[in-house]
Amino acid sequence: MRVITWNIKGATKTSAVWKILTDLNPDIALLQEVGGIPEEIKREFDVFSKVAIQKTGKPQKFSTAVLVKGKVISGIDLKSEYEWVNRELEFFKGNFISCIVQPQNQGLVKVVSVYSPAWPVNKERLKGIDVSPVKLQLNPNVWGSEIIWSALKNIVSNNEAWIVGGDYNISETFDKEWQDKNGLKFGIRSFGNKEILDRMYEMGFVECLRKYTNKIVPTFKHSRGEIAHQIDHLFVTSNLYSRLKSCTVGDQSIIFGNLLSDHLPIIADFKNTSQSISPHVEKFIIRNKWVFAKTMSKIPHYYIVRDDLSENDKKLFDEFDMFIKKNGYTAEFYSKQYTYFNIGNYKYWVMENILNRATIEHKNNDKNL
């Protein structure tokens, strides 16, 4: 499985960025500053996208996006234990987008594409609020990176595969420049950057590029020409990092040289994370007759009743039921929640002694919400 994160600097539908993306051939792409996505990319990827927000709260001219070769299963509501953080999450809803995806022939992954602004949270919105549990100790302001951290720490489980990546606007080298040059050389955020990185590590995340290379690899070219800072990051839970094969960045000469973006993509390759059903269960699914649910014609689906099966097929029914419960995802059917698993063009779920399946609708969520 290949994952990339890349700020593409407002790339439009005709940008050469999309040729590079196609050549990189990611299974999952976390993109920031997306000006427009060409139709051929939408045919190749399922897209989840929301318009980013300006400092004033007005929409930007670009979006934050998640692209997956497979299915976007559903969005994830990011919530903090602090109501003021939840208000900021709502303000930043186009900057921090999160969803559950299932790449082709692989297990479920929870992903967050981050476009953390180069400006802090407006202090006027924080008047009279104790922000100390969230604010960095070494920085007088609250930034987007702390807002997303506050939400993640309540929902991330190391038993799940999580990928959190994007343009964080934080770099360990900003702290060094504050110490060496009083923060005047580079004015995005002068100090406290390592603190937010440490917080992510404490949650069980690993920063792929920093850990794999064991050094700071610059990903950003300043308008003055210097290439010194890694402000883009790709965090994954430790269970996913254990499958990492390699992590690198895109070619500076191509991307910076052709002015395609002022950011390099981070490119990470992982061993396959697929969860496969047994061949016996696969044959069971194929050979049995699926009955159309006439009484629920508004929600078209088909079913198999366990009681109608042979003793051997009942065992395979139960095996598949356990497999779905262990490897699936939760979603609603009418007013109740069930655990689903996708195979090919179908999603499967069990209701008591009934195995159901329905065709997966391929939906592009690139609606600039």
Shape: globular
Care to count the β-strands?
19
Q: Indicate the radius of gyration in whole angstroms.
A: 22 Å
Count of alpha and pi helical runs? 11
Q: What's the number of structural domains? A: 2
CATH classification, class level of the largest domain: Alpha Beta
Q: What are the segments in which pLDDT stays under 50 over at least 5 consecutive residues? A: 178-188
Structural class: alpha+beta
Question: In the CATH scheme, what's the topology name of the largest domain?
Answer: Deoxyribonuclease I, Chain A
Overall mean pLDDT: 88
Order of helices and strands: EHEHEEEHEEHEHHEHEHEHEHEEHEEEEE
The major β-sheet equals: 7 strands, mixed
What gap, in angstroms, lies between the N and C termini?
28 Å
Largest sheet, spatial ordering of strands: 11-12-1-2-4-3-19
CATH architecture heading of the largest domain:
4-Layer Sandwich
Report the CATH superfamily of the largest domain: Endonuclease/exonuclease/phosphatase
Binned strand content:
25-35%
Give the % helix.
25-40%
Short description:
Helix content is 26%, strand content 31%.
Tell me what you see in this structure:
The protein folds into 2 domains: 2-274, Endonuclease/exonuclease/phosphatase (Deoxyribonuclease I, Chain A, 4-Layer Sandwich), CATH 3.60.10; 279-359, no CATH class. Helix content is 26%, strand content 31%. The protein is built from 11 helices and 19 strands. It has helices at 17-24, 39-44, 83-91, 144-155, 172-181, 193-202, 208-213, 238-241, 252-255, 279-287, 311-327, and strands at 2-11, 28-34, 46-53, 59-68, 70-75, 96-103, 109-115, 162-167, 205-207, 232-237, 244-249, 266-270, 291-292, 302-305, 329-333, 336-343, 346-351, 354-359, 365-366. A 7-stranded mixed sheet has the order 11-12-1-2-4-3-19. The chain has a 6-stranded mixed sheet with strand order 5-6-7-8-10-9. It has a 6-stranded antiparallel sheet with strand order 13-14-18-17-16-15, covered by helices on one side. Helix 3 packs across helix 4 (144-155). It is globular and about 70 Å long. The model is unreliable at 178-188 (pLDDT under 50).
